[in-house]
Amino acid sequence: MRKVHISFAKQGDVLARPVLSANGSNLIGVGVKLTDRYIERLQSYGVDYLFLEDRHTTDIFPEEIVRDETRKKAIETVYKTMVDLTSSPSVKNKAISKDMGLTYQKIFSEILTDLTSNRGLMVSLSNLHVKEGYLFHHSVNVGILAGIMGMAKGYNRIQLTELGVGALLFDIGMTVFPDELWQKNTDFTGEQRERIKKHTEEGFNLLRKQFDVSLLSAHCALQHHERYDGTGYPRGLKQDEIHEYAQIVAIADVYDALTSPRPYRIGYSPGEAIEFLYANGNQWFNVELIKIFCSHIAVYPIATTVQLNTGQIGVVTALNASASHRPIVRIIQEPGGHPVYSAYEIDLQKQMNITIARTI
């Protein structure tokens, strides 16, 4: 299979991976043959990438650091929590659920089991979902990324659980706002942006009332918009004044937000997001944490379709651990749009004169 932007999909293409709905269920399943109408509907839902079957790439599969079953269960849990909160404003001044913390500890334990089993894999968060599901899928992605960071830092099980639960629930404060505000299809106005900033304190106030949620987990909600140089909110904390859990969640939050499509912009590539993080080292984020984070991210994930500076089109088949920006690429189209009779591979770590010009 290969991953391509939806603008390159055409009638007759066959889906190789499902597109997920807001709650994590399949919106369109594997094996569906696309029509122009399907493509238009998916575009209207905010889906910008698809995994398609291709005769040259039948043996290529994205490396999944967390199993689909685990991810779907986590998305369903986050979805239920947030939907219940938006429809039950009475929870604002009391605990949300008597066993919410335990539920999220169990969910993160399953994520952690998958991460431990796949230790060493470069991260590629390749799930595809509709725009209405962004908040729920984003929360799970942040939980996964934070877990990887915690493992890399050598956290013990208790620390990993505190971090993981806090990461999965870091944006829970968004539920105090009307749906149309946190599901809007355009960027925030100045007034809306100031209002939405309150989600950090609202989230903290919700979580700190939960007897089975650590206060350190609650601080992930409170401090994930604080910045290393003191320019963040709500309290303008800087450097070590910001708990390390919240610093980790902040990096994961920004990375996944950048690489996810939004209604008002396309998603950035992993490489572009990594450049953004480094550009803000020791300004927004601790540069040492950035280094740890980026050492686990695949710049060009397996199954990514790319165009080389030679004009050739190829699909990433394998990563080079010592140079993730120079993967092995299987050529499926020659310059000028000429198809290949038999696909062949180029190792960009050995062919230094050939570079990736863009992803497709």
UniProtKB/TrEMBL annotation:
SMART domains: HDc (SM00471)
Domain (HD): residue spans on this chain: 135-258
Alphabetized Gene3D superfamilies for the sequence: Hypothetical protein af1432
Cited InterPro entries: HD/PDEase_dom, HD_domain, HD_GYP_dom
HD-GYP domain residues: 113-309
Protein name: HD-GYP domain-containing protein
Source organism: Paenibacillus thalictri
Source species taxonomy: Bacteria, Bacillati, Bacillota, Bacilli, Bacillales
